[in-house]
Design goal:
2 domains; single chain; mainly alpha; 15 helices
């Protein structure tokens, strides 16, 4: 290293935002160091997938980077605009893929498997997005979900294939848009991911169908069911189960790189039962080869790794070099 600035640039290129933010004021001086630390805090929120705070103000961050982060942001009130990840999950899944790749390169496998787990939980909503016209926004659910004869969100209905917890989540999602911000945030913390899986069950696995999915055009139903079925299957793959493999709970027994690759190869084989799941076997250049192709097939739209973290790193490097 030629200088302390070169070391800071190396940290930026490695996406070591927390370390860089802590060291920058000591190397660059208080004024410039605080500007760098402000950008680092912004980058760290994205790397940590803190979607509640993606829209937080960061004046040292270029407006274009803030705009791209807001597209992945989860609205914190029922009426917040823009709708971010509730309008479309495609940018958020691009960020998830970029985070997975960064964590893999840094061999931070516990947070990497956590990112994979998040992707699995919400993947059914990515499948439903073309039919809904949004990404599962509770303020914009189709009226047909609660049409006559629908058991969607009816708690205790024994004819319904949903679990009691899913029935409670579905009941809540139909009314949470009129709750205050506290209730809205609590719902997203605890129940929205259950709604995602329950929707997929409705269209792909229900043994006793009701009218809840009649709002989906008949010509589109089979395609949606196929993509939702693969989304549910992904959540049950060996790769996603790595998150739950520790005998005493999350955070212990971090998998090795070899275990991750082995779990993904077994997952690809398990998914390769139809053309949609078979896209997981594609060699698309991603560290977990085929994962972007799988997400794209489930979404029926291109889903590619974002460059948001890379662009934040480049911006930090330029700030430090100046």
């Amino acid at each position: 290293m030629d200088s302390a600035r070169d070391l800071l640039i190396e940290l930026a290129e490695r996406h070591a935002f927390a370390d860089l933010g802590a060291l920058a004021p000591r190397v660059l001086g208080e004024r410039e160091g605080e500007r760098v630390a402000d950008v680092c805090e912004f980058g760290q929120r994205l790397l940590s997938l803190d979607a509640e705070d993606f829209a937080a103000e960061a004046r040292a961050v270029p407006a274009e980077l803030r705009r791209r982060a807001r597209s992945c942001h989860m609205p914190q009130t029922p009426r917040e605009q823009p709708r971010g990840a509730l309008a479309t999950l495609v940018p958020a899944y691009g960020l998830l893929l970029e985070v997975i790749a960064v964590r893999w390169r840094r061999r931070e496998l516990s947070p990497m498997t956590a990112a994979v787990h998040i992707a699995a939980e919400y993947l059914p909503l990515l499948a439903f997005e073309p039919a809904l016209g949004h990404a599962g926004d509770p303020a914009a659910w189709p009226a047909g979900l609660a049409a006559p004869g629908s058991r969607f969100g009816v708690i205790g209905d024994r004819e319904c294939d949903h679990t009691r917890a899913e029935q409670s989540a579905l009941n809540r999602t139909l009314r949470v848009a009129v709750e205050p911000g506290e209730g809205w945030r609590a719902y997203f913390d605890r129940q929205h991911s259950q709604v995602a899986g329950a929707l997929a069950t409705c269209v792909a696995r229900c043994r006793n169908p009701c009218t809840a999915m009649d709002w989906v055009a008949p010509d589109d139903r089979a395609d949606l069911a196929a993509r939702a079925k693969v989304a549910l299957a992904f959540a049950d793959t060996p790769l996603v189960r790595l998150r739950h493999a520790a005998p005493v709970g999350h955070g212990f027994g971090v998998p090795s790189a070899e275990e991750v690759l082995d779990a993904w190869e077994r997952s690809r084989s398990a998914l390769d039962k139809n053309p949609i799941g078979g896209t997981a076997t594609h060699d698309d250049g991603f560290p977990l080869a085929g994962l972007p192709s799988l997400f794209s097939a489930v979404a029926a739209a291109p889903v590619r790794p974002a460059t948001l973290l890379a662009d934040i790193s480049a911006h930090l490097s330029a700030m430090i070099a100046e």
